[in-house]
Amino acid sequence: MKIKMILVSMFAIAALTGCSEKDGEHDGQFGAGDADMAFVSIKIETESTTARSSGEGAGANESDLKTLYVVVFNDAGNVVGVPGTTEYFIKIQNASSKPDAIKISGAATKLLMIANPGSELVKIFDDINAQTTFPTLNVAIKSVSKGEITDEVVPITRGFTMINSGDESGKNAGDKISDPLIPIGDKIQKVTEDVDETAAKKAAELDDNRVTIKIERLASKIEFKIKGDDDANISVLPAGATFSFVGWVPDAVNSTFYPFAEKTLLSVTHTSGGSYTKSFYTQDPNFTDGVGLTKATINSVTYEPVLTAPYTWMTAPNKIYCIENTMSAVKQEFGNATRLVIKGTYYPPGHSKQGDWFSFAGKNHANLTALQTAYNDASAGPNLKDACDRMFGKIKAYANTHSGVTLVGTTFATLKETDLAQIPNGGEVIKEGKTPVIRWYQGGRAYYYYEIRHDNETTKDMDFGKYGVVRNNWYKLTLGSVNGAGTPWYPDIDNPGPGDPDPTDPIDGTTGYLGVTVSVSQWIIWENEIGI
Prior knowledge:
Structural class: alpha+beta
CATH class of the largest domain: Mainly Beta
Helix content: 10-25%
Number of strands: 32
Distance between the termini: 74 Å
CATH architecture of the largest domain: Sandwich
Number of domains: 3
Radius of gyration: 29 Å
Low-confidence stretches: 1-29, 49-59, 515-522
């Protein structure tokens, strides 16, 4: 006899009214109506098992399957429940790439799978009811860190969050993938008068009947290294200048994402037989306004940059994960794109390579004595004198408001090296917004930035998909050249210094100092050598 699910009237009413679960109970038993019981089995392919043109590579444990959440939908687009239970999703623990067949409603026609979800995403699953559709399930998850979608603790326990990647077959550049759901209508094995549960389950687990699901990570990965793994291999301009690498950190990182982000296919193709045919660009919740970005700030006491948690200054080679951050073509602005900030020690040609040096209006001064000599020179002009006097005013103000700082000098002309040594991060202390100031490279400290590029083949300015970081993409950045002194202050997006881009400046209209080689992998790898 054909097995039917009988709805208790109370549950039917709950399903129709869309009541949410309470006290851990879902809102009714099997909200699929008079549907047959069925089984379906899946075969999972992660984006670490294939290759891609710009280079794909797997990372250790980044493709581990730990826990799978499966949700099925009917023709009307609503979630259908699990027969014989009050659940609206199937949870598979200790998953493999070919888990046992799962029991679903015979009314199911499409499937969504998420692997290793973080706690915020699990909350969304817990709220599923009979009225849930894919758009209501795919809501923005806000104010989270990369820990929501990554698992870097060794040994891996939860795993990296992954989701259906969507079907790009038959699509061309410019087309969108807005629905990741996988059709399963011809794969499910129904329980009928002639087929019992055991037989249906066995049939579902035949290889030809398994539903193949390609899943991809929600995280992006950024890797940074020095060309040849040594400062000596970095080209430094002008000739005779020197640069020593100190550290790097990401800035302007996202804190909000969609479980599945709408994709637009780009014209870049992958020729090495990878799992993707074309490169893609996603649309995150902050695609046009950037309100989910977290950025470094400056400590008002130490004047050190307060970096975005949990990131800190890192050595090279090294890598980090982050949440994807994308933007429309017109919003590819300096303040919106995720970037690298690189800290180093830079000295101009002919310098002793020790101590502080200064620059104003394009002219370098090797030390405080040289700057004071220029200050006292009657031909130096009022602009330099004014900048030096304002520099002293900033230093004096810092000394007056910070205990333990006592100046010997009473004017700029009488300042001593020992006075300067008491001021932390001098370049930051004397910055006055966009007003031209003495560039004080204290101990040669210099900062550089690099806006991460996604599409490295486009030659158009502000081209869609050119900048940003995208899920399941691995950006390998290699520092190959340093083309100037950088800035003596941290490149603060929201408080730019003289010569720095404003947050709303187009990225392609800004001037940088880095030469960077970028490579993006299966992770989709983009490999770039950068110049700063």
